[in-house]
Design goal:
heterodimer, A: alpha/beta, six-stranded mixed beta sheet, five-stranded mixed barrel, 20 helices, 31 strands, 18% strand, elongated, B: alpha/beta, Four Helix Bundle (Hemerythrin (Met), subunit A), Rossmann fold, 2 domains, five-stranded parallel beta sheet, three-stranded antiparallel beta sheet, 16 helices, 10 strands, 10% strand, globular
Amino acid sequence: MPHAVTIATPGLQALILCGPGSSFPTFTANPDENPKALLPIANRPMVWYPLDFCYRAGITNITLVCPPSAAAAITTALNTNPFLTSLPYPRPDLLAPKDLDQNTGTAEILRLPELQSAVTSDFLVLPCDLVCELGADKLLQAWMVKSASLPDLLGDGRADPLHVSRSGGLGVWYPTKTGKPVPPIKGEETDFLATVPLPPSTVLAPNGSLFPNMARLVYSTPTDTLKDTLEDEDGFPVRHGLARRHPNVRMLATHRDAHIYIFPRWIMDMVRENDRLETIGEDVIGWWAKAGWQQGLSGKLGLDKVLQKSSASDGIGGGGGGNGSQHNNNNNSSNEPGSPEDEKSSSSPSAPRSVASPRLGNNGHHHHHHHFGGGQYSPVGSQMATVTDKERAELQARQKESLARSSTNPSSTVPPMLAYVHPSTPAEAGAAAPPLIRRVDTAQLLLQISLQLAKLPSVEETGEAAASPLAHARKVAYPEGVKARTTITKQDSLVADNVTVQEKTSIKECVIGANCQINEGAKLFQCLLMDGVVVGKNCKLTKCILGKRSEIGEGCTLVDCEVQENLLVEPKSESSFLSCYLQSTDWRAILDERTFILTTVTWISRRKRGKVHVLVRSRGDRAGS
Amino acid sequence: MSAEGTGAPPSGAPALQEKPQTTTTTPAPAKTPAAASSTPEAPKLTAAQQKAKAKAEKAARRAQVKEAKAAPVVAAPVAAGKGKGGGKQDAASSGGGGSQPQKPSHHRPSMSGGRRPSVVAATILKETRSSIPECFRHVPMAKRVPTSAAHKDVHPAVLAVGQQMATFAIKDSIARLEATLLAFRRVIESYETPKGNSLSRHFVPHVLNPQIEYLTECRPMCFAMGNAIRLLKTQVNKFDIDTPEDEAKEGLLETIDLFIRERISLAEFVIARNAARLINDGDVVLTYGRHRLVEKTFLRAKENGKTFGVSIIDDPYDNGGQALAKTLHAAGIRVFYSPNLGGLRANVERASNVLLGAEAIFANGSLQAPAGTADVAMVATNVNKKVVALCETINFDRERVAVDSLTYNEIDPGRNTAESFRLMFDNTRDRYISG
């Protein structure tokens, strides 16, 4: 029975971006009818996870953003799916801006007028494919304490509007190559980030808080972009400005951006003013992080204006009031995000630069500690500060300089963009096991994360208090449907409602969706079955992902396969030797190839209205193709 | 003796602390000339205020009875009877009866508001406090509740302020007071009286109390916050039941603005101005830790053209002195820095006078200040140096007296193990402050 949220709401709203899911070619071939947001992860629709993440922290003002074409499917699911309907009240709003299609960049989405008017307060941006065991309240606490500015939150009108410090933001990065709790997955995207430590706090961080892992972000880019830069530049160019400003930089190459962002409202203005920004992760965060140390960049991004304006008219929510001036600003700075790039590439060869070779390998993350020009800023000494004259002069000069800078340019202090770098080892996390944070955007991840979630002890076993927030109520939701003499390994399997399992079957490390039917003698190992799958007698399935309502004929042996929804795999099909990677979406080409290579596999294609789909997609290495 | 009835904590105040209270009932002579003379207006504890307080206490007692009734079905009548009786006896200042029945309630009377603390908070509290010996159980400690354990009526602004307090991002009493008041402003602004209710009847129990309760769970309130909240509640009670909502809200906002202006901004200005006059050319002024009034005073004196040095003895658990040293150094003041109390006597002897910042001042004139302040004051008195303490009147507590550091204190939640725990404040008797 759904109930209202009973905890305090932190005053932020959440945007959940329900994207197209281009990385699930098998299951989102038709993204309008089967949007990625509704793919099941461990039997719950994907979008349940970010929604639950919000509700757990008391955030109830949630807006799902999706293309108009997918709105109908998502609305239906919100009204009918048992998991989505059992979420607490109030229900999330669905926003389908008319100019939004499946290829719109995330920052472009924020620029849409519908979003500009929908976001009225500080906000969270979440992807629909986020599985996050970590409570949002901890992130919010970190944001409230380390990044938000009190005058901003409290609307302290007395402070000088030119000098008021504005709230910053917070992002989350998680390690991809740790092997725990999820084994490393080939081809998972990573991001490159550089952080500097926060100013040391005099107070011990409370137990269980995220403060020890918080850092200030100074550089962020997807690893792909970084690789391009590395190839072009034959090394990684580091601006001297960065080194001067932050002598101690930590660079991480195998972490990934979880796309959890806590943003202050003024980000909407920044995005609106800079129409070159395409994505949040690469452009907005990247430029913002750089503007924190790169001189003049905040001016180019129009941050000064944005920060002042929003402090002058806070909470009004970006009405049409300032449109004229915005336009001017756009003209003045139309090429800004491009120009710093040019500048960077042109100036870096002439200036002596320090090239750090990041060795972007698979062997964990690398820490580069640069120590430049020591003694620029010596902390006040241990016993009766013995500051030498030279140092003092230097210090004073620096202070004067910074003072002069801040007086000429009132908001040259760009609010910080903080990074929570999720620890990979229990020792760092301060708990038995670090909570799971993962984006699920490939089929392989879908399988692995589902299996991982299936291993969580259920609420039935551990009790309400100790269970993970993502645990299911029961491992086998409908025990009556399971016949005797079957093997289901309960510690690592999950069987949903209304599943019938016939005798002599074996289900090990599997996630079985609702209404599935497993017939006699079937053996399933590390499989993910979406809703309504029928597995024939004596099938042997290993590491397969079976789409909604697909049907596997008798006696099939499938390994490493993805089966699209509504499809029937002929009895006695075998795929164990399939090792070619069929990537082409042109089904004819595949069929040709298939007839050539895979003669022993019979395929039946159509079950539904003349559409021909690829029946079985086999994953594996590319060696065969 | 009116302090007895209203001031003493009804729950678990050990008897040993009651004793000195009765012996030292001399009215508090304001030993802090700078502070006392500079305050724009002294807070009067009117009869109405006392009444309100008594009322709050009564409500708290009732709530406790209710709680006891609700909790164990079997023990309900017994516990309820005890709770009631205990409360009354306690008011009559017999320590024995009052301390038994409600063991785990560490709230001060005005804080236990009337709503149950959430289950999560209770478990957290139990875990962290279990290591503290029985005789120190009355000393409160910041519970640091997560936002997810807060009551659902807590306003977002208060939520953020509470988290900042819980993590000690804002920790000195005036900063906390200011943030609280500003957050309450937001609460009042967003408040709408439900139909069939009036602001004066509805606002405090249903809106304000959950906020206060949450803030208290994040970290025990400081005296300044207690004073301010009492004032605010009185203001609400003053409204006639028929006062239009807009008018009442306007009035409350005005009260808060006035309060901030007079008790915080103006007080700070006047105290800094007056205290700066105590600094002479060529002085070396010693201070302990970092206090914003002391810092303001130094900067003010520098502005006035004085040349002097500052010797900072830092609190080793809270290196605020470093930040102070940086600020003063940037302003061109000569700074001596010592990271802890080591060699204190030598440092004090070298100084010409001592300027201390206080967290609160009790009715008997003793000073509550960050742990270590008392040592500095005692040594300074010993070597005949002038000791001046700075404190805003809003931090004065006119009802409670304290002669030791254990009556009113706080346990540092970050340093609290089975073997040892740290008290955050200490008590400096008035005789060590020369004024």
